[in-house]
Write a structure and sequence with these properties.
Elements (H helix, E strand, L loop, with lengths): L18 H20 L11 H18 L4 H6 L21 H36 L11 E5 L4 H13 L3 E4 L10 H7 L5 E6 L3 E3 L7 E3 L2 H14 L4 E5 L14 E3 L4 H12 L6 H6 L1
Parallel strand pairs: 1-2, 1-3, 3-6, 6-7
Antiparallel strand pairs: 4-5
C-alpha cells in the first residue's frame, strides 16, 4: 500500500509593501538585531533557554510582519529563527559547550536580518525612484523664451523689467495681460506657467509688522505667494528676485538671492542668472539696453 505524502506548503509570492510598511519593517529588524547582538551567550547552560526561545519567537514575528508568512522573502530569511542548539549526543562523561554553537546561530541570524534590511532598503529606493520618475515635472522649455514676471502695484519696475527682457530676446508673461476666461488668479498662473524662468519684482507696495511694532514697507502678499509657487515649480535656480527700494524680506526666503533694481547692475545680474539657467545670452544686447 502506497504511503500518503503531505504536499509541500505553497510558497506565497513576495508582498508589495508601501513606504510606511518598509520603514516600520526596517525599525523592527533593527530592534531584533540589537537584541541579538546584546545577548550574552556566556549565560547559556543548555541548548534551549527561555531567553533564546523568546528571541526566536520575536525574530519569527518580525519576519512575518515584514514579509508575510510563508512568502518567498520570509523563507529566504527564516533560518534566522534557529537560535537553539541540540547536540547529537549527551553523556555523563561528555557535556557539550552550548555557548559556542549558540553564538554561531546568533551571528548567522544577525547576518540574515542585516541582509533583510538591505533588501528592504533596496525596495524603498525602488519605490522612491518610481515616484520621482512618475512625478509631474515643470513644463518649462528653454527654447520658448517665455519668462513669467511676478509684480505688485508699482508699474514702473514691471514695465522696466518687461522691456529689458524684450530687448534681449525674451517674451515677458505678465498675468494681468492674459485673458481671464472666468478663471481665478491661481488658475491663470497654472494656465500660463509654461515658462522656463520667473522674475519676481519685490516693491514696497504694502505695510505690515508683528503686533505692537512699527509698520514697515513690504511686498504684496500675492507677490510672495507667487514667489513661493515658482520656487517650488521651477526650482530656485530658475527664479530671480529683483528688489526695488527698502522693504522687509520674509525670513522664509532668506536663502534666495536678491538683486537691487536701484541701479543698472540688475540687468547684468538678471542676465547672468538666465545664462546660468541654460539660456543663451547676447551680451551685446544686454550692454546696449
Amino acid at each position: 500500500m502506497a504511503r500518503k505524502t503531505t504536499p509541500p506548503a505553497q510558497v506565497a509570492p513576495k508582498l508589495t509593501l508601501s513606504v510606511q510598511d518598509i520603514e516600520r519593517g526596517l525599525a523592527r529588524l533593527a530592534d531584533r538585531i540589537g537584541e541579538l547582538a546584546a545577548f550574552d551567550v556566556s549565560t547559556v547552560t543548555s541548548g534551549m533557554t527561555p531567553e533564546l526561545k523568546g528571541l526566536e519567537v520575536a525574530v519569527k514575528d518580525t519576519l512575518i510582519r515584514c514579509f508575510g508568512e510563508n512568502t518567498s522573502a520570509y523563507l529566504t530569511y527564516q533560518a534566522a529563527c534557529n537560535l537553539t542548539y541540540y547536540p547529537m549526543m549527551v553523556t555523563r562523561d561528555y557535556r557539550p559547550n552550548y555557548a559556542a554553537p549558540v553564538d554561531r546561530n546568533i551571528k548567522n541570524a544577525i547576518a540574515l536580518l542585516t541582509q533583510a534590511q538591505r533588501s528592504l532598503n533596496e525596495d524603498l529606493a525602488d519605490i522612491q525612484h518610481s515616484i520621482s520618475s512618475n512625478a509631474p515635472t515643470a513644463n518649462f522649455n528653454l527654447n520658448s523664451k517665455r519668462i513669467f514676471i511676478v509684480h505688485g502695484h508699482d508699474d514702473g519696475p514691471r514695465e522696466t523689467a518687461a522691456r529689458f527682457l524684450e530687448k534681449i530676446g525674451f517674451e515677458p508673461i505678465i498675468l494681468h495681460e492674459q485673458a481671464n476666461r472666468g478663471r481665478t488668479i491661481i488658475e491663470k498662473i497654472e494656465a500660463n506657467r509654461d515658462v522656463g524662468f520667473a522674475v519676481v519684482l519685490l516693491t514696497p507696495d504694502d505695510e505690515g509688522c508683528v503686533r505692537g511694532a512699527e509698520p514697515e514697507p513690504r511686498a504684496r502678499q500675492n507677490v510672495l505667494l507667487e514667489l513661493g509657487y515658482f520656487l517650488g515649480y521651477l526650482g530656485r535656480d530658475k527664479v530671480c528676485a529683483l528688489k526695488k527700494g527698502s522693504l522687509e524680506i520674509p525670513s522664509d526666503f532668506a536663502g534666495v538671492v536678491w538683486t537691487s533694481m536701484d541701479s543698472d547692475g540688475w540687468k547684468q545680474a538678471l542676465s547672468l542668472e538666465l545664462q546660468d539657467a541654460g539660456y543663451k545670452i547676447d551680451w551685446n544686447k544686454v550692454m546696449r539696453s
